[in-house]
Amino acid sequence: MNYHFADRTRNFTSSAVRDILAVTQQGNVISFAGGLPSEEFFPVEQVRLAYEKVFASGTGALQYGVTEGFLPLRGLLQERMKTKGIHSDPEAIMMTTGSQQAIDLFSKIMLSPNDIVLTEDPTYLAALQVFKAYEGQVYSVQGDEYGMDPQDLEHKIQTLKPKFIYVVPTFSNPEGKVWSLERRTALVELAKKYNVLVFEDDPYGEIQFDEGETYPSLASLDQERTHVLYTSTFSKTVVPALRCGWITGPKEVIGMMAQAKQSSDLHSSSIDQQALYFLMRDFDLNSHIALLRREYYQRMIVMRDYLNNLEGFSFTEPKGGMFFWVKADKQLDMTGLLPEAVRHGVAYVPGAPFYVANPQENTFRLNFTHSTPDKLKLGMMRLSEVLGNVGK
Amino acid sequence: MNYHFADRTRNFTSSAVRDILAVTQQGNVISFAGGLPSEEFFPVEQVRLAYEKVFASGTGALQYGVTEGFLPLRGLLQERMKTKGIHSDPEAIMMTTGSQQAIDLFSKIMLSPNDIVLTEDPTYLAALQVFKAYEGQVYSVQGDEYGMDPQDLEHKIQTLKPKFIYVVPTFSNPEGKVWSLERRTALVELAKKYNVLVFEDDPYGEIQFDEGETYPSLASLDQERTHVLYTSTFSKTVVPALRCGWITGPKEVIGMMAQAKQSSDLHSSSIDQQALYFLMRDFDLNSHIALLRREYYQRMIVMRDYLNNLEGFSFTEPKGGMFFWVKADKQLDMTGLLPEAVRHGVAYVPGAPFYVANPQENTFRLNFTHSTPDKLKLGMMRLSEVLGNVGK
């Protein structure tokens, strides 16, 4: 039969991230495509012990839980965020199935068809997919390596009257850049001046190479906690399979999101949330993150050195996160070149799908966290074979 | 600030199920409200062993997974459904965060504002919440204890042109009734005649008291697998905290739902899915379900005997599932009586929110699976105190 789907499905673009995951599961291809953390550093034994504690805590641990998530875990998250200057309370924190679900639920309660979202350009492609799935209109704000241009932002807030502004200000995806304090402050001030909500997506903030630097989150600049929604996740720093993200922000907004979550899935896995609670309580997460920072920095350096030798391409060395964002100096179709790269046993993500408008085909994103240094070298040698001549 | 939410939030009714869960967490109230399984029978040790196997299987188990879910688990589900006459294949099966998410994702891909859904009346209230959250219009089909009336169904398909028909044909929620084979066949035939999709929600089908009876699922009657979506869950038969549901149906529909799931949460917890795989592989789930059937039958009998002594109320003895649906013979406001019941230390769900239109205030739902027989007796004595005189 012919299936007549809802209007919103016409905006489903899908497949970009799906194809990435499909490629990474082929054994002989070294994939720099996904945003995957390194499996060598998964604290498997500590995670195993945390689940042991869940099962030892009684049968009640396996019963239905509340939509907003396991309350003691939300208490620990409150404490952790406080050390980063984000003042919240457990009732204004909701657990989600990864931070992807936080983006989805927020969009679900905010966007009617044709409502406007302002973003950076390029930006996280799976966020663009969500906004389009709810039939939102996405417009990009001009910016540079320091963040959105406040003048263009103010102009677009005035003329487009957006429902919210979506940003990844710390080690952004895909560009890997960090907003300056001035740009952060300017964004929060404009949001307050015009009463626009800001959605701060921060999956990578913990993966910071220079321990001396501070990159205050937008949420920490919103002292009254009225305008900034902040989301993060343990997928990048602990293990992705847990799918434990969280969101905090104005209570009224979190409350409406909890209503949306109730009808979406009642609640996320509470076994996983309880395990995460024991892990955060008993495991030295900060030392673990310090290890990841050191190891990922080394991997970044390996990749950087190969990129430096690649003629005709430019990039900025990332100060944290998981990605290099690379531009060919001349017009190159990086989407068209991908099959050739895969034939050489290496994969990247073409940059085009990350753009809101006017995709720049001469860009691509490389992940440096997932592969071991040896595989990084081998993969970069393969990539250099493919790109060594075309970029000149 | 004033938050301007999306239009769809005007249809969020929420709170009914949330309030239920809130009541069940007060220690001294015996709650017959939630659809909770009994904690005494949770196979904690077997579940613990299953997670052990996940952590022993290597670090890859903790990495990101595919949106549709852990493939070997989908293989076992295919085999299990085959024993019930449902022929599927792993690519037409998707794992979800409980069957609630299957209802949500299906509605997301099917419903544009004002699209029509046909349901029974009363029906599962959290499904009604989903349809309204996507701004669908819900109309009920006339029916009786055997299921929907085929004449009224055909008339409403012709005149209302629904996007789909939502039913809980086996041990329905809230009525606890079972559709006859004739009504099942009639529904599937009408769905095929008019090319309308059927969404069969089957969380309770396994909890069947008379082992000799067979209640073929609608999916098993849709031999071509073109018109019926079938969803079920392990929340009722294993443990709710796992949040592992699944859906199967036409590949094109499942594929579109996978696109929706990708942007909703990327994938459900894959640690839990892998644990469920080991549990299904190594644990005698059928013996466990046989135990639940016997124990829940005993509990049902305890509650039935008290209900039989309650003058002025009528009910049908359930053949499975988790619920009694009780009607006062005269006009009684069961919503208004709930605070009085809670003061007496017992809770039920008023029937009104389960109705599509014209809520019958003289109805309520009682769960008999969650409380031990002793608590069932105590709770029913309390309820008899509250209702003993008002119903006469």
Biggest interface: A-B, 84 and 84 residues
**Number of helical segments with 4 or more residues of chain A:** 13
Mean pLDDT of chain A: 94
Strand order of the largest sheet of chain A: 2-10-9-8-7-3-4
What is the overall silhouette of chain A? Answer: globular
Order of helices and strands of chain A: HEHHEHEHEEEHEHEHEEHHHEEHEEEH
**Class of secondary structure makeup of chain A:** alpha/beta
**Count of discrete structural domains of chain A:** 2
The second-level CATH architecture of the largest domain in chain A is 3-Layer(aba) Sandwich
Oligomer: homodimer
Look at the structure and give the CATH class of the largest domain in chain A. Alpha Beta
Find the CATH superfamily of the largest domain in chain A.
Type I PLP-dependent aspartate aminotransferase-like (Major domain)
Please give the number of β-strands of chain A. Answer: 15
Query: Largest sheet of chain A at a glance?
Result: 7 strands, mixed
Give the percentage of residues in beta strands of chain A: 5-15%
Low-pLDDT regions of chain A: none
From the alpha carbons, calculate the radius of gyration of chain A and give it in angstroms.
21 Å
Query: Separation of termini of chain A?
Result: 52 Å
